[in-house]
Design brief:
globular; 13 helices; alpha/beta; single chain; eight-stranded parallel β-barrel; TIM Barrel; two-stranded antiparallel sheet
Amino acid sequence: MPLMTTRAMYDVAYRQGFAIGAFNINGIESVKAVTEAAAEMDSPVILQACILARRQMGDAYIRKLIEAAVETSSVPIALNLDHGEDFEVCKSAVDAGFTSVMVDGSRFSLADNIALTRRVVEYAHSKGVPVEAELGKIGGAEGGLEIAAKKATLTDPAQAVEFVRESGCDSLAVAIGTAHGAYKFTGEPALDFDRLAAIKKALPGFPLVLHGASSVPQEYVALANEFGAAFGGARGVPEDMITRAASIGVCKVNINTDLCITMVANIRKFFAENLQTVEPRDYLAPGRAAVKALVKEKISVLGSAGKAPAILARFAEIGGEKRR
């Protein structure tokens, strides 16, 4: 099974009205948990790493982990750079073998965001790699970049048309009310689905992306707190809202916080119940198992279960996606 770009994935996802989970990886435990879950659900999956994860693991280790995942899996897998903050970060990811890159120029003016994205697009496309960009400012911290809640702004549909036309990006992360991190809402959760529908109408056939879309499962928040954590007030995006977004042009949904909280909660529980443990594999195993179960649930919510064959067929139809 080749490591593929996101093109065939998004082609099928858009036409059939589902989304593909993009799960952040931080080492072998998360890679195995996510890819094993995807294989058991016969679902495509996107593994992604931000600059902080790349610094921690190193691109050579990431590449070999992904190679192992691809070698042992029967489902489509893509490797995406999450929140590349500048041209050099994105270029280094392309050169390291990432099959998709996300450039985040959302903190800049529209003109500067377009200019940065276009520069990344020109280089990435020369290597056969598609580019995701972001328009609007999604609140919270992710991958070393942080946007204060008061500075978050929603995506303007008219600007989205101009941005896609001028930048040449292949997919667009839009801001409709989600936020990075575990504390997304102080009141009732709400996403601007009218805005999302307007963006889809303005960009027919164009794949959209939802960042900051973790649901922050309350059972794992409670479990972590029971064993010493302090996640009071952590709230995420209800899963029915994610399913609805997937039916309105959203082809990729980023999930990171849910994996982290799930891993932390189960490791805390293990340590509390096993005071003499000394083996990392012993306490990592329940965390990995819980993350795997969570990913399978997310795949069901996104509607990508059983979609691997359709994407593989599309992949073959367009002659594969070879990096140049």
